[in-house]
Amino acid sequence: MFMSWFYQRMNSRKKNRRNRTFTEAKFSTGCHIYHYYIHGVNGNCKADISPTSDDFRRIDIVVRMNLREVEDDMQTLFINAAKDTFEFRATTPDRGIVEGLLRYHPFLYDKETYPEDPFVYQDCFKYQKSQARGRRDIFQCFWNGRLIPYTAISGFDWCQKKGFKLPEECYSRFSGVLFTDSKFHVSATKLKFMELEKQLKQPGTHFTRICPIQKCPRRGDIQKEFTNWLQNCHKTLDKQVEFIDYKGTVKRPEGQPKKKQQPWAVFSSIKQHGRRYNAGDIVMFQKTPSILCGTVVKFFLHGNHKGDTFATGGDVEIKCEPEGLYEEIIKVLPIAKIDKTATDEKNFRTLGKYTLTLSTVLNDNITTVYGGRELPKYKHEFTIQEGDAESFSVGELSSSLRVGEPFDIPLQMKDCYNHPTKPPPNIKPALQSTWVINHYDLKVTLPGLKDDTQTTKISLHPGNPHSLLVKSKTNPVEVENGNPVSFEIEVHDEAGNITRFPGLEVHCQVWTYADNHEGYRNSSALDLSELVTKPVKEKIVNGEPQILEARFEIPSQKQVAPVTRQLMVMPSKQISRMELFSQGEEELVLKNNEKIKWQAGGVLEKLFYKLYDEAGREVPITAEIASNIKVTWGTDVDQRNLVNGRLPDLQIPTHVDEEHLYQVSYQEKKVSFCFKIVPCPDEPAGLKVTLPQSIVKLGETLSGDISNSCIVAIGVRFPSGSPGSRVICFSYKDYTENVVLEVAAGVPSQLKLVSEPNQVRYKGKKIANSFLFLCDDWGNPSPDENINVEIKPSPVTLTVSLKRWYYALEFKGSLKGKSIPGPSVNLTLLPDPNKPVRLSVDYEKNGKFCAGGKFPGSYFIKITFVFYYREEEIPTRVGEYTVEFSLQTNKKEDHLWSQISVNVVANEPVKLEPDCQQQTPVVFYCTEMANRILVENMTLKITDQFGNLAGQNLNGTVSISIKCPEEERSRILPLFDGKTKTISVKLIEGSALINSLAIMENSPGENGSRYILHFKPEVTNAPTSLNLFELPFHFYNDTENQQKKVELMKKKDELTESVKECDKLFDKIRNEKDLLKSKTSVCDICSLLFLCVGYMLSSVALCLEQKTSELETIEKTPRRIFSIHRNFSGPDILEMVGELAFVADDDIARVISWQLQGDMDCIITTTTEAAQKHYEDTQGNQQVMALDSMFVYQEDRPLPHISNRQELFKPSGNPTFARKHLIYPSLLFSLPVFKNLLGDTILMDDLISATNYRKANRIQCPTILTRTGERVSAKGKFGGSQNRAPPIDRLKNVFGAPLPDNYEELKEQIDVLHRYCAAVEEIEKAEKDHNDHSTKWFSEILQKEKEKDAMTKELEKINKQLGMFSICFIFLIFELI
Description:
The chain has 16 helices and 80 strands.
């Protein structure tokens, strides 16, 4: 509704819009309408200027639009321009309540502050310029916080001007808003109220002012309250008059009340409404008994003022004019009575045409008619023109004056009253400039004028580039080869000033016949710039200097002549060449990259090197230079020899099969010298055999080659035998050589069992020691001790009696990652009759859990049973899952549980599909893009069969083409936009985004035809073939029936979905039927359960009665209980300490209860906050303890006589930890409590055993309690009544006794029997429901099949209609032809 009103408003004012766009106006107007929805009750107030109400109680404001950034809507302008507010409430006779607010916008300094609409020209409302609000209505009206734009109220009687002394303009300086609730009706469009103004202005409506602090109504007359508020606003907020030229402070006793006689500040001038009044000016007054004119003497303002100020009010002292007409010449009148529309009547200084009227008036009044006749009068017309030029002023000069550029000086001639006038004839201006610090004073003189000289300041900038100066100390400039050259550059204007210019660049080009070097430097920001070239690299010939030329120019300033300088490139003093030579028996001078033949195994000694610079001068070798000399042979180089030019001796290799490269380099191969050594053979002197290794294993071939001078023996191997030494003899001509080779046992290949264990064992009993040997293929023991032997049992076989398991223990070795087979021993394992102690889960930890697949086999052990979980389905959605296994044989024992975490990952990628379901597109033979679009903003992703993303590592393209359905004949295919048959889209990490896909304008195709969009993924290294995605669409070229076809297609889609829903219902009915059938198998399962425990189905009721009787007998049997009754409760309060555990043995219950007697009634809470609260609720009389404040060891410590799982001695008295005798109903909360209270307190049989235990330990021992009631403290103290427990009947609080062991078992059996009875009833009910539902299902399926047949027929009808449209279109084309 808001938008319709906004468009009407904008269209009606279309001609008045200025400088604002349509979008800006739209959002600003929207913010105005929903202002209090967006910014809350107080609106968008930037500064809190009044204690406005935060609770308009009957207004429900909800922020639902994000338009807070708009700052120029009208409500924001009104709120932030207001300096004071007036709140009121109106109550109508029918108890409707309207809350209102007036905001005062004062006159400040030289203008009104009443906001103007920034989107509408003000003359749209025909404003009165002297008033702020003009003719606009006062109140805008809001309904439930929303602006109703077409309803505005001009005001009420009590807020209109009615003869009060306030200036009239004060009544146009306030704006207002009215807030209503749903009691006042608005139109359906919410653009106007129905009868709001009529309801508010009826006689019975009562207005009251609201106190801004207490938010309660004030007693009193609303008109009086409003007038007082308006007077105060005018007095304190309006700043209409500027008082200028303070003269002093005086006292005014005449005609003033005593309180206002002083102080009065005196001023010589004032300024109001853009007009200035000075002492000596003649002014006219209005609202006086007669027309009064006078000359201003001075102005008065009450208060302490010491300078110029703004205020409202004040008086003016005048001398009445003409003086002869008045007896009292001096008068004091309010400044407000000055007629601001009157002109200066005596001193005519304003140019223009005037009419002076002299009228005859009677002495007693101002009437110009006497006796019905008009008294004589005279009119004189005259014109005021500008006078001769007496002075001038200099206009504003350009801020960018440059040397050498002409500029204009604007001069304005003025007469004696500063009126613009013509210059005098033949005037010749004279100019004179003077430099003053950082600017010029330009003195302009016009001879002949009264005020003939004016001085103005000008800033002169350097002019345009005129010349280029390149400074250098020498010419030519010398530079060492390899170094850059620097020049000092200055750009001058025509006066020689260094100039700056935007984008000014000086280029330097250095060249020779062979190479060019360029360096660039921007010198526009510096007075003196240094230009540095790139390093000069010239080829030095025979050590002679090279001459180059450097050319400097400014490319952007062609008028500046280029400058050239010569460069003399001197040979570098850096090391540039190295020479090597040998001073052995024969002096040898080496050449770089030379190939030298030398005797194999010999030494190239006395090698020296020398270094030279580019001029051929030898460079003395220093320690620093020597430290940078590197050679490629020898690691231990003597630096002292390098300083003397000596290189280390070079050992020639003994092999002659290849050449070797050697290098001497300086500074990381900056200067280097290379040579190659080719070893030459010497004469033979003997036979030498070299074995690659001294030990070889049986069956292995000797690694490497046996070398005998130039003869090589390979493939040496000992195929069998026993370990030991072997001698190998080599002979060649007259030379013979023997070598000894140690033969060790072969590669370990088997395990041999020396002694077998007993074949029948009990669980928990050790198997007698057995001896295994690691042997090779020939049975030789292997010395290798790093073998790991694994004893692996074969899968267990469960017998009929469920009493024993048969295993085959397989011994399997592993050596360096190689598996070694071993023997197998049959073993029969008898079950442990005790309860289970652990729960283990075996599964493939490194297995891959693919979505929708099957979990690998896993199991957990319960007593003598092995439960297998095989072929369990994996969830079809990817993610982290936790599988928990738990076991509890009875409720007195702890849960055995185990958790495994599995990460379900996507299955194999199989298809390409969109991320959301796509509707069947319909396109047309046309030019409009909207009717040619096939797909928009569709994302295709590679997924597995369950829709999980599975192509994150697949990249490639998606090829899009248009095909005919397989069952139809080939026909003309539409083309894509751009006249292409196929389009490729990038496939990145298994995802492809298609922003828009359309057919071309006026695309070919058969009318009414159905086509298929093929989206085929083309990727490399795909693990499986990927199914393409097909999207059918329809093509039409009948523009007349396009809309009908689209509607039929939509209806066709809806019917297709309805048919699918029917199919889903059929599936649901079939599932319900199968579920009821499955319930019939419950009876068979329950029968099998009771057969297993030895009961017949016919004796279930008798058995249930017997078990229930046994349970009731146990519950009625007296037993020891904790006697304190709880009288507390709460979510974080658990129980008392005495309730958290049971103790079966009476003696143990007695001594532990006595040990914890002071803690038995302590209340345990889960949090410290709950403990503190309960402590305060009981006034500190109740003991409390919080679980989150306890420190408990996570692992159980061993008894003091046990160290490293070994007993230090054999103690007597059966020592155990006392807390082990407690039976916990809730292990989660009880265990940490008693670990904290009892700690490591020990329980033993008697006092003698306890004291001997401490003596034998001789280490730190905790407190010991005995079953006889004695206590030995941790310090060793015992004896006396304080260390002896009283009889159990004298203890105040005692731990309760647990129920018998068979109690929980009985409850479980009773529960099973009850469930069996319920199962029998359930199966009977299931059979009955199955019979009852059969009829219902038959009727429902019959009804749905009829509906489905009807929808199918309608679909066929729609398909025929679509086909008819195509036929009609073809016929129409034929008729047109």
